[in-house]
Specification:
- It contains 10 helices and 11 strands.
- By secondary structure, it is α/β, with parallel strands linked by helices.
- Helix 7 links the parallel strand 7 and strand 8.
- Helix 2 packs antiparallel against helix 10 and helix 6 packs across helix 7.
- It starts with a strand and ends in a 5-residue tail after the last strand.
């Protein structure tokens, strides 16, 4: 099984690359959350049954969830309607005794909720007055989450990740804090909320930022990202965006969008990475 990278050597040398399959598994697992509280976006797995499956064996054995009690509720504006649906979680692992702890902040994507689709169409819905969508909530909440992570581990390495809408939210989070060093966006929405972040904050946060756009060839959002790439070509620095194209899943463009299928494929040990000279 093979995948193509727009910068193979850089991807393989990146310190978080060995955890690609784990990051993908987290982005699948968060869909197990049956979250219903718009005022508290931390994932709720009280009804989840899937953590014991083989797909999640590595994260179950090698990672630890950060206690949700560590994170205070975000400051929500009273004068706006909160567009619910935001779900996020934080886990961590010790890489080695000499390296800083690795923390992952990851976001759920669209989950058949009307509020998710409101956020997906942010280019239009953001002009509706007195509403506060998931991107606005991420912009407000990210600094609080990162501050708490740094209290737990002052030298932490932090990555953000997500699938579909969650990939867009993860990218938005990275523009909100210079402490988020790497993003893994799987089959991601082309919406990133970049221009909604304070200009000075986003300028500072994008310095040395690495964004891996990992996607299944032919999945439904690939076409939207392709259009956007014509307008805004892949950035090569600040942030450096690396395209990772997979060709694992058979079926139509909706089936190819599945996070579970992509996570399962990335766990296969025979995966090889090829240089994609056409990716720029």
């Amino acid at each position: 099984m093979k995948i193509k990278a727009s910068d193979k050597d850089f991807a393989l040398a990146h310190p978080t690359w060995p955890y690609l399959a784990d990051v993908a598994s987290f982005c699948a697992y968060i869909y197990e959350s049956k979250h219903k509280d718009p005022e508290n976006p931390i994932a709720d797995y009280s009804e989840a049954k899937g953590i014991g499956s083989d797909l999640y064996a590595s994260i179950r054995n090698n990672w630890t969830r950060v206690d949700p009690e560590n994170f205070s509720k975000p400051s929500l504006p009273k004068c706006r309607k909160i567009i619910g649906g935001l779900v996020l979680d934080v886990w961590h692992r010790r890489v080695s005794e000499t390296e800083p702890e690795l923390f992952i902040l990851f976001f759920r994507g669209s989950d058949k909720e009307i509020n998710d689709w409101w956020t997906n169409f942010r280019w239009i819905t953001r002009f509706v007055p007195r509403t506060w969508d998931q991107y606005s909530q991420v912009i407000e909440y990210t600094s609080h989450v990162v501050a708490q992570i740094l209290k737990l581990s002052p030298k932490a390495t932090i990555i953000s990740a997500g699938h579909s809408l969650g990939g867009g939210l993860a990218t938005a989070a990275s523009y909100c804090s210079p402490h988020i060093e790497t993003v893994y966006a799987f089959n991601s929405s082309p919406v990133t909320g970049y221009f909604s972040v304070d200009r000075q904050t986003r300028k500072r946060s994008r310095e040395d930022l690495i964004i891996f756009r990992v996607y299944e060839k032919g999945e439904i959002l690939a076409y939207a990202r392709g259009v956007m790439q014509v307008i805004w070509p892949l950035s090569k620095k600040d942030p450096k965006v690396i395209r990772i194209e997979c060709d694992f899943t058979a079926g139509n463009f909706v089936q190819k969008h599945s996070m579970t299928a992509l996570a399962q494929s990335l766990q296969v040990q025979e995966v090889q990475v090829e240089q994609d000279d056409k990716a720029t």
